[in-house]
Design goal:
The protein is an all-alpha fold. It has helices at residues 3-16, 26-43, 52-69, 71-75. The chain has four helices and no strands. The N and C termini lie far apart (39 Å).
Length: 76
C-alpha cells in the first residue's frame, strides 16, 4: 500500500471503526447485522451504488462470524 493511501486510511479510520470491525461477540454480530440491514435498505440491488462494496464487506464479516460461532447455520 502506498504511503499516501495509508495516510488517507489513517485519517478516515477513527470515524468508521465503530461501524466496520471484525465481530468477536454476539453484541458485535448483532450491531453488524443491523448495519447491514440499513445498507441493504439504502443500496438495494444497485451494484453501482457508492456503498455497494461496503455492504459486501460487512456481509463477509457477518458470514465469517456465523461460520465460526453459529454452527447450526453452517449445517443448513
Amino acid at each position: 500500500m502506498l504511503a499516501s493511501e495509508m495516510q488517507k486510511a489513517a485519517k478516515v479510520w477513527p470515524s468508521i471503526s465503530d461501524i466496520l470491525f471484525v465481530p468477536h461477540t454476539e453484541r458485535d454480530y448483532k450491531a453488524l447485522v443491523g448495519f447491514l440491514d440499513n445498507l441493504v435498505d439504502e443500496v438495494g440491488q444497485d451494484e453501482r451504488h457508492p456503498l455497494a462494496s461496503l455492504m459486501e464487506v460487512v456481509a463477509v464479516l457477518i458470514e465469517k462470524y456465523e461460520d465460526e460461532y453459529v454452527p447450526q447455520l453452517a449445517e443448513q
